[in-house]
Write a structure and sequence with these properties.
143 residues, alpha+beta, Nuclear Transport Factor 2, Chain: A, 4 helices, 31% helix
C-alpha cells in the first residue's frame, strides 16, 4: 500500500504541479480533502485548485523537486524544493521578477482510497518573502 500511496504523491508533484495539469485535482484529491498550509486551511477540491492557481499564477515557471519521499501506512511524507520566477501577484504582492528557491519544504499526506484526504504543509514563508524583497534579508534587520 505504501508504494501505491507514494505513486499518488509522485503524480501530484510531477503531473499536477510540474506539468501544470490543473484538471488532475479531481483525480488526486478526495472531495472532502483538507489542506493545512502556511497560507491557511483549504478545503475540498476547490481548496486544492485554489492552492494550485495561487502559485501557478505567481510563479508560472515554478518547479518542485522531490528531495525525499517516505511512506508508511496511509501517510506519505515528502521533502521538496520550490523554484520559480515571481511573475504574477501572490497574496497581494505584485510581481517582482525575482527568482526564488525555497528548500526543505515538507508535506505529510494522508491517502484514502488512492486520493489525498489530508495534507499538512510547512515551508519557510519568511525565506520566500525575503527572496521576493518584501522582508529584509537575513542579517539586515538590525537584530
Amino acid at each position: 500500500m505504501s508504494e501505491q500511496n507514494k505513486a499518488v504523491v509522485r503524480r501530484l508533484f510531477e503531473d499536477h504541479w510540474n506539468r501544470k495539469n490543473r484538471s488532475l485535482a479531481d483525480e488526486l484529491f478526495a472531495p472532502g480533502s483538507i489542506l493545512h498550509t502556511p497560507d491557511g486551511v483549504l478545503s475540498g477540491l476547490q481548496g486544492a485548485t485554489d492552492l494550485f492557481d495561487a502559485y501557478a499564477t505567481a510563479f508560472p515557471d515554478f518547479h518542485l523537486t522531490i528531495d525525499d519521499l517516505i511512506a508508511e501506512g496511509d501517510k506519505v511524507a515528502v521533502r521538496w524544493t520550490f523554484e520559480g520566477t515571481h511573475r504574477g501577484p501572490l497574496a497581494g504582492i505584485a510581481a517582482t521578477g525575482n527568482r526564488v528557491n525555497v528548500a526543505n519544504g515538507v508535506a505529510i499526506y494522508r491517502i484514502v482510497g488512492g486520493k489525498i484526504a489530508e495534507g499538512n504543509f510547512a515551508w519557510d514563508k519568511f525565506e520566500l518573502m525575503q527572496q521576493l524583497g518584501v522582508l529584509p534579508a537575513a542579517g539586515t534587520a538590525g537584530v
